[in-house]
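Figure 2 data, in text form.
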Amino acid sequence: MRRVWLLGVLFAMAVGAGSLFFTKGPLAVTIVQPERGVILRVYGLGTVEARILSRVGFEVGAALTALSADSGDSVTKGQELAILHSAEQEARVARARAAIAANEATLAKAAAAVMRAHAVLAEREATNRRQQGLVQRDIASIQRAEEAQRDEEVARADVAVAEADVAVIRAQGLDAAAALRQEEVLLAHHVLVAPYDALVVTRHAEPGAVVKAGDPIFTLINPQSVWIQAYVDEERAGQLALGQPGTIRLRSQPSAEFHGTVTRIGIDGHRGTVWTVQDGRLARVELTFGARDDRGRVEVTGDLPDAAAIVARPPAGAAEGRRTRVGEGP
């Protein structure tokens, strides 16, 4: 009897709760209307930078004799920027050129020696043929024939030596030419030129200063690579996309507008839960959010069920499955 009575009490309580839920009138809610084409405005702290920035200097050390650019100047690729004292290097270039001239003269002398050796060899060959013929006719002695043969062989060896001398001198000429090119390259390193079309941001040295190899003389940037690296609250960054066009305004120049595109993004969207109205009843749904504009409105980028409306301000008493009476909000 106790068990039956307890179950009866529980059943009565359940019936009373159900009648209370279903006898309440619809809950008045306000829903938001979707908008499209909303202009996104994002605010954040950042810096104006250049992706291509170069601190240029000389590959050799010496005293600066001239500077042809200053901070704020625009320069073109190959334009002269600075010059180092180069008298010592110019002397080395002159010495290398003199070595080439001497080599050319030595080569000419060696080539003449080769021609002389060939002429002597031709004479000795003719003499040897004549002596060998006389020996066969018993007109000349065998000793004379042997001497003629020996003289021809010596002359042929002299030709080989002369031709080898020419080969050595030509190789020395190639070495002298390489040495000249090296000295000319070092001389060219005494002139600093712009590596690309650039804007001079900073000049680090003055004429007369002695600089070492690698010391920066100018800081250059490529004007085409200037970008703004901004740090934006993830909640406000929203659904930015690569290649997305935008208008940029700086606090330092509030009246100026700069146009560009998004080239790098370091964040993604975020998620949250909202109340929705589906088939006349309340339901909680987790959505993916994107951008937040300057009026506090948030873009919904995914997971919103079809025919569902988002509740603008959940009223007191909101519960899953509660019937609603919909009104339109902003």
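Caption note: The chain has a mean pLDDT of 82.
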